[in-house]
Design goal:
single chain; mainly alpha; Growth Hormone, Chain: A; 2 domains; 2 strands; membrane; transmembrane helix; sugar transport
Length: 542
């Protein structure tokens, strides 16, 4: 008997997001550790290059490549996840990702060289691409509309927990051996990277007990199973519940339309009536990267070393940002369906721009250039002391606190709500691939940027946040409180802008009617006719 509690279903499936978090901090926590720096040392300091007790680790560009390998694999995995999910199902695609993760983690844990480490991270990334694209789709298609944002937002919360847990595991293991080039121990990095396999094993076996997406079942013509899953998850097994009938009618009309437009490919995402949604979904993920948050996560130890925090003090100070990330994601999970997507993204962009510009100003006015970098790491190119150093750290914490309840969860919630059923798997996969493409580019870009343009790196990300604000303001419509089929009708509004639908600035959060339907307080058939008659007419006219 499959599990029917939607909270349990969401809690289990978002462990896939936790894998992404594990991978982020498993590397960021190692960037200042001598065990990692000495084992993969490329000089100029530390054995066999000289007798210095501090190793400098991989060169800047190579470290960027190691970091970006996971994102590059994720880009490929996200693109592959669409066809995989459409053919095998949302649930099985998540399980396939778990197997790939276990293989990649085994290679990383056993790494003997930088190329072997890169290959392992590429494989792990392929898994993260699948999970990051298909977990939100799975949750979106199985959740009730009034709580859909909350449950998809749990994906981001799982990412933050993954980051925090793995960071502290790595911190604990940093005490294995000593922080010098002569007495370090490989176990300090092999143990954390080996433990990454545990959540994937848990997720694989738990997915066996979860139901398949009802909308995917409907698309395959398995209507009895679709009704059973809807009843199990939304009505405690009551197949005659009004909301089950309401959802079934919505899904049937959508599937009838899609049967007349079958054999879809990625090219369908770029047709005139779909290109707007594709661009919005893609840029939701692109802007989430260009805010600078994942750069903060990957290279947070560089920031704190530039503020004068070194060794274990730097690791502990960095961990506070991860704790803030976990705590500040909670308000979004609880209230994002009430706040709406647009206001959340707009406020987040302005706040993050403020803290990025503040950090740029602090470094420009008070930072001292360190030739060759702190501890010979060229990316740690400036040093700030005293009150300005505290200001730099405070703005970094405030930046994380601004991202966590805004762009963090909404960048995962929003794309699955944009696309019709026939294109949802591929649409979200393409949008997520944009995330990973820019994640890859930024992984390469940031170490040399910090070494060469220094404080201007922060200035650049501040400008990106301002650009994101105006893009959301004029183009991104509100999807909160709407069924996935009602969102489809909004984009095909005959009274709206051609190929765009209802203008973004005229859209609002709608929750009352959906809440009534979910609780059986209205007649399902009447509600369905009210909401879907115009939708059906618009679609047949397309």
């Amino acid at each position: 008997m499959p599990i029917g509690n939607i909270y349990v279903i969401a809690a289990v499936s978002v462990v896939g997001g936790g894998l992404f978090g594990f991978d982020i901090s498993s590397l960021s926590a190692q960037l200042g550790e001598q065990a990692y720096l000495c084992y993969f040392n490329q000089g100029p300091s530390g054995p066999p290059f000289n007798d210095d007790e501090k190793c400098t680790g991989p060169r800047d560009v190579v470290q960027g490549g190691i970091t970006a390998a996971m994102a590059a694999g994720s880009w490929l995995g996200a693109l592959a996840s669409g066809p995989l999910s459409d053919r095998a199902g949302r649930r099985y695609s998540i399980m396939v990702g778990c197997v790939i993760w276990i293989i990649g983690s085994s290679i990383i844990c056993a790494s003997q060289s930088i190329p072997m480490l890169v290959v392992g991270r590429l494989i792990n990334g392929f898994c993260v691409g699948i999970e990051s694209a298909q977990v939100p789709v799975y949750i979106a298609e199985i959740s009730p509309p009034s709580k859909r944002g909350r449950f998809i937002g749990m994906q981001q919360w799982a990412i933050t927990w993954g980051i925090l847990i793995m960071y502290y595991i790595s911190y604990g293991c940093s005490f294995i051996g000593e922080q010098n080039s002569r007495n370090y121990r490989e176990a300090a990095w092999r143990i954390p990277w080996g433990l990454q396999m545990v959540p994937a094993i848990f997720l694989f076996f738990m997915m066996i007990f979860l139901p398949e997406s009802p909308r995917w079942l409907a698309r395959k013509g398995r209507w009895d199973e679709c009704r059973s899953v809807l009843a199990l998850v939304h009505a405690k097994g009551d197949v005659d519940h009004p909301f089950v009938a309401y959802e079934m009618d919505d899904i049937k009309q959508m599937c009838e339309f899609e049967q007349r437009h079958s054999n879809v490919t990625y090219l369908d995402l770029f047709k005139p009536n779909m290109i707007n949604r594709t661009v919005i979904g893609l840029f939701t993920q692109i802007w989430s990267q260009l805010t600078g948050m994942n750069v903060m996560m990957y290279y947070i130890t560089f920031v704190f070393r530039m503020a004068g925090y070194t060794d274990s003090a730097g690791l502990l100070a960095s961990s506070i940002s991860y704790i803030i990330n976990v705590i500040m994601t909670v308000p979004a999970i609880l209230y994002v369906d009430r706040w709406g997507r647009r206001p959340t993204l707009l406020i987040g962009s302005l706040l993050m721009a403020t803290w990025m510009f503040a950090n740029a100003g602090i470094l420009a006015a008070h930072g001292q250039v360190v030739e060759g970098g702190i501890d010979h790491v060229s990316s740690q190119s400036m040093l700030v002391t005293g009150a300005p150093a505290k200001g730099l750290i405070a703005c970094t914490y405030l930046f994380v606190a601004s991202f966590a309840p805004t762009w963090g969860p909404v960048s995962w919630i929003y794309p699955p709500e944009l696309f019709p059923l026939r294109l949802r798997g591929k649409g979200v996969a393409l949008a997520t691939s944009g995330n990973w493409a820019f994640n890859t580019a930024l992984g390469f870009f940031v170490p040399p940027a910090l070494a060469n343009i220094k404080w201007r790196t922060y200035l650049l990300f501040g400008v990106f946040n301002i650009a994101a604000f105006f893009h959301v303001l004029f183009v991104f419509p509100e999807t909160a409180g709407k069924t996935l089929e009602e969102t489809e009708a909004m984009f095909e509004d005959p009274n709206g802008i051609k190929y765009l639908g209802t203008p973004a600035w005229k859209t609002r959060v709608v929750t009352k009617l959906v809440n009534q339907a979910e609780h059986g307080e209205v007649d399902a058939k009447r509600q369905t006719q009210y909401h879907m008659s115009d939708v059906h007419d618009e679609k047949t006219a397309v």
